[in-house]
Amino acid sequence: MLAMFFWSFIVGGFICMIGQLLFDLAKLTPGHTLSLLVVIGAIMDGLDLYEPLIDFAGAGATIPITSFGNALVHGAIQEAEKHGIIGVITGMFEVTSSGISSAIIFAFIGALLFKSKG
User: Fold this and answer.
1) Higher confidence at residue 100 or residue 68?
2) What gap in Å lies between CA 28 and CA 91, rounded to an integer?
């Protein structure tokens, strides 16, 4: 059990460290860094490398933004196998819709409860 926590922390920290290095050394903007990490996650899933990482590190691989790219490609591939080319489009939305919907709902609730300082 402790080993799972340890490797989750190490892998998640490594992914975040890559993002921080992109900010500091490559001088990328937050949007560019975010996009690059999503694309890296998508490529890793396309090469069947992200699922073994999730099995190994658990939340250390599913919490960072690279997991969003993984979810997009994973959903597209699964639905494409079932429904053909239309499944590529619907699969991406099906897999990611709950996370995006909850982010919108919680942001709306936060906007109702708190005043902005700007």
Assistant:
1) 68
2) 30
